[in-house]
Amino acid sequence: MSEAIKYAMGEDRIPHSWYNIVADFPTPPPPVLHPGHGGPIGPDDLAPLFPMALIGQEVSTERHIQIPKPVRDIYRMWRPTPLHRARRLEQALGTTARIFYKYEGVSPAGSHKPNTAVAQAFYNKAEGVTKLSTETGAGQWGSSLAFAGALFGLEVKVFMVKVSYQQKPYRRALMETYGATCVASPSNETEAGRAILAAHPESPGSLGMAISEAVEVAAKNADTKYALGSVLNHVLMHQTVIGIEAIEQMEAADAYPDVVIGCAGGGSNFAGLAFPFIGKKLRDKRDVRVIAVEPAACPSLTRGTYAFDFGDTAHMTPLVKMHTLGSEFVPPGFHAGGLRYHGMAPLVSHCKELGLIEARAYHQNPCFEAGVLFARNEGIVPAPESTHAVRAAIDEALKAREEGKSPTILFNLSGHGHFDMQAYTDYFAGKLRDQDYDPKELEASLAHLPKLAAE
């Protein structure tokens, strides 16, 4: 076993193609359905929202999709990202486990999100699009698309979930620095937003609401397309550069993970690390445990129903089969805003149904405790979302210590928490509450799933 702490690769090792896990599934995932007639949706139905190149990637069954050279050239700004051996954390835990983490916080925007933001901006620019609309929870995705928009000369409008808009002013400032416009959602700028405010004037917002507003703007303006930061197949595929690099870096470390861990809200950073390893398991029988970690206050994988549902609150999106809490579910305003989504990516949900992944849920205080322990040993302050993966990795390492085992653990440190320090301030002040969802609200939300889901 190498004694190195950091495993870096040169720019020549940036992957030349993204990995599409659909090619290796033993059974294909369910189709995307039209909300009107209930049949499979076609390319023309999606054309008002996405460029044709991304629509093609969304339905592709090819194992590898080539990364365009202009996208790879921009990836060179931060990719390949480093793989770290968490030796100081291992020592602090007194564990016999080996802990590795792939660090995506070195990107200009501070997270994994530019991996797909740059790709989406490229394909939109190539099709002559001049404006993009999107939503964001904690602001990681909004700032990443703003960054990509600046590089390609695209106007970007971001609808930011209101509670995060208020909690994270520096994320908003970062978006504006890159040239984007940031609006608190729900807003008075769209019919969807006005309808929500009329019914709930003090609404804290949700990703489902923000998606409705962003989709409405794209659907009503011919010069605008919609960009999504997670959930959809092509978004998850763009993130697989993380896992492809990690496989090569683990080989350099003379190791291979027994356990792969990622936090999961919509599913993109989790899939980005995990899917290439799951692919090796399916193709090469290289066994690995894969754990998706979600917030206990918004537990789509551990408490949701696997059903066809809308991706947004105003029911403007196609129907996808996923683990869902219902499109009307509004999660509490906990600090991991990037994990406050009512549904899980269809491909991640399909993995769960096939038994390829495990899922667990944590409250936010144990996650921040893990984040602080990690920062005091490894030096990096994790984003609130990423602390969920840190918590699970620590728990797996402590379990190994108790059992006298020495597994190799790999997790995705999907972003830094430099713009989330108010959350840490609240944690140290004892102000963070471990909120649970309201069971009655969840029941009511699930009762309103599309009728198709019960058929």
TrEMBL record:
Domain Tryptophan synthase beta chain-like PALP: 78-415
HAMAP family assigned to the protein according to its UniProt record, in alphabetical order: Trp_synth_beta
Record Gene3D superfamilies: 3.40.50.1100
Molecular function terms, GO-annotated: L-serine hydro-lyase (adding indole, L-tryptophan-forming) activity; pyridoxal phosphate binding; tryptophan synthase activity
EC number of this enzyme: 4.2.1.20
CDD domains from the UniProt entry: Trp-synth_B
N6-(pyridoxal phosphate)lysine modified-residue sites: K113
PROSITE patterns (UniProt xref): TRP_SYNTHASE_BETA
Entry similarity comment: Belongs to the TrpB family.
One family name in Pfam for this protein: PALP
Pathway: Amino-acid biosynthesis; L-tryptophan biosynthesis; L-tryptophan from chorismate: step 5/5
Organism of provenance: Roseiarcus fermentans
Cofactor: pyridoxal 5'-phosphate
Keywords: Amino-acid biosynthesis, Aromatic amino acid biosynthesis, Lyase, Pyridoxal phosphate, Tryptophan biosynthesis
Catalytic activity: (1S,2R)-1-C-(indol-3-yl)glycerol 3-phosphate + L-serine = D-glyceraldehyde 3-phosphate + L-tryptophan + H2O
Summary of the function given for this chain in its UniProt record: The beta subunit is responsible for the synthesis of L-tryptophan from indole and L-serine.
Coiled coil segments of this chain: none
Protein name per UniProt: Tryptophan synthase beta chain
GO cellular component terms attached to this protein's record: cytoplasm
Assembly and binders: Tetramer of two alpha and two beta chains.
